[in-house]
Amino acid sequence: MKQQSCYILAIESSCDDTAAAILRNDEVLSNIIATQDIHKAYGGVVPELASRAHQQNIIPVVDQALKKAGVSKKQLSAIAYTRGPGLLGSLLVGTSFAKSLSMGLEIPLIDVNHMQAHLLTHFIKDENPNPEFPFLGVTVSGGHTQIVIVKDHFDFELIGTTLDDAIGEAFDKCGKILGLGYPAGPIIDKKAQSGNPKAFKFPIPKVPGLNVSYSGFKTNVINFIHKNMQKDEGFIEANLNDLCASIQYTLVEIIYEKILKAVEIHQVSRIVLGGGVSANSGLRSKLTKTAITNGWEVFLPTFEFTTDNAAMIGIVGYLKYLKKDFGSLKESASARLKF
After folding, report:
1. How many helices (H) and strands (E) does the chain have?
2. For the chain, how long is the longest CA-to-CA vector?
3. Per residue, what are the HEC states of 59-72?
4. Are residues 220 and 245 in the same domain?
5. What is the pLDDT of residues 284-313, one digit of tens each?
């Protein structure tokens, strides 16, 4: 007997991207993202401006997702939304919209943990194989850096996290001191291709266990730049590609050393990457080469699903729908939602 199609409307509004997607079972029919360029002028996300932009964007984005998928509201089986973690004001916009539409259409509401979604994006139906359990999940983004053991779709054990800044935040703050635009991560990555990663040596913080720290590294880079700029005002311009390559090398090395340690401690050599920084060529190359050398299985997300998007919320919604694990209208957005 053929399985009946399940149509999920997914909404993501945890930070500065307003996103909506339609999934038919585990297949993405549409994945729409409205970015907020207003934050570029400030060199980072301004929470109040982000929530206001979500209010303006959410209805057009959802409408566009439905039209592109060729699906009507009456066909929807459930609505999945990001409950947290993230910016509270931004989360509230998506949460309120999802609840209202769920009530109006009288269909189930499914709350999704944003961090789980970054890793479960690998279960979206595409040309890539799904990872088997258990695996070592590594989430690297602008707001988070985490290492988890994933034993099942919804069995996550946090074994390592950043003690301060996330890796994506470190990329952006280093980019700012170099005079690069926001977000700086992709710009640093591009310029690093033409630079020497060993041109400038930056220290790797010694942090116990599987936790990481990026704040000290960021401060070290800022002090290094200031010191050299006092000697030569053209230092950054003359060494930009080498600086980008050296910064990227060290940022990747910090998390890479912890991945190596996690594999050794937990004897899990199946590595699943997620989050915006999972698009970084340095990190991808490092893990791909290690996979060949050490016999690891490494799963890299499709570029479309690396940054915040609603398709990843939708696949979690579908997996929860199969279990009839529905949310409640009483549940509120949570800026620091845990697994």
Report:
1. 9, 10
2. 75
3. HHHHHHHHHHHCCC
4. yes
5. 999 999 999 999 999 999 999 999 999 999
